Amino acid sequence: MKSVSRPVRPRERFLVFGQPCIGEGEISEVVDSLRARWIGTGPKVSRFEEAMARYKGVSHAVALSSCTAGLHLACIALGIGPGDEVITTALTFCATVNVIIHCGATPVLADVSPVSMNIDPRSIAEKITGRTRAIIVVHFAGRACDMAAIMDLAEKHGLLVIEDCAHAIETEYRGQKAGTIGSAGVLSFYATKNLTTGEGGMMLTNSGELANRIKQLSLHGLSADAWKRYSDSGYRQYHVVEAGFKYNMTDMQAAIGLHQFGRLEEYAQRRQQIWGMYQRAFASTPLALPAPDDAGTVHARHLFTVLVDEEKCGVSRDEFLSLMTDHNIGVGVHYLAVPEHPYYQRAYGWRLGDWPNAMRIGRQTVSLPLSGCLTDDDVQDVIDAVFDILS
Which of these is catalytic: 127, 193, 215, 312? Predict the structure, then answer.
């Protein structure tokens, strides 16, 4: 695809960033749940868990209300708490850091690689202390972290590894699915994700003990699943065995997810096509484009991020964002570096210069629309708008 020489006019309709692909199958399945009057946690949640466990090749998958819930429960179930330090990336959504805080532990930020934008194992090694209990890695934009180096560090220092796979449903690392390498992995099914349930998440593990604890914690700490208590097999008494949370997924959400599976590969191929269109179109521009894929990995193609260097591009990142919106095209920022946010500065006294790569990327990054539902005309509109802004 190429830019056009004619003046570029804004699209008539706004192009929503990360728009979900919802078909008649999802709609019919939700209607079926409504007609069955089973809209809470029920049999469709179990089917969804079984389908994801098969896809990821793990023994257990526990459906939850969000990826944040899964990360929080994973930390609790693995025994992370007050006095512990947990290392994670300085370039991530706030939820990754907040779950550490909610457990009473202390977040410690490692810098990222300037190429992959993933957490840098060398920075992790520098942050390890006698109080370090775990590492939470984030497979940023769908690109697998350097898990061999990270797992070596974890083994050497006796650390837990939790994989934040919010961007990484299809991601693979050396033949292993993302989320199956560490102690636990957590997926996101938010509206913008490659597979969506509107809201929702899922914890992956090969430990039956961990899975049972997560499931119990997700339903108030009850001794039996709510849907089993009211099933046609008869009422089952329950007891509260610990102070849990309300983090369960509903059948209404699972109904959507069940039908997303059937087109997961189709959507992945389409995102791959769009990725190639962007790479070819922007190769001659001053934008910094995503790095080539690492050998032995599968990239989930969740985010197509470019870096806008004001000196090279003649426009600042924030101006670029505003101008894309003026063209009626939605864009995202993934992410402003964690230490930039006022709360963390106040709470931990973090100095902005301690994570130079994350800070630079966070101030320059823009995510362009990337969805299996985009048409060639949509993609061309994005390309034309970018060229118009850069010119």
Answer: 193
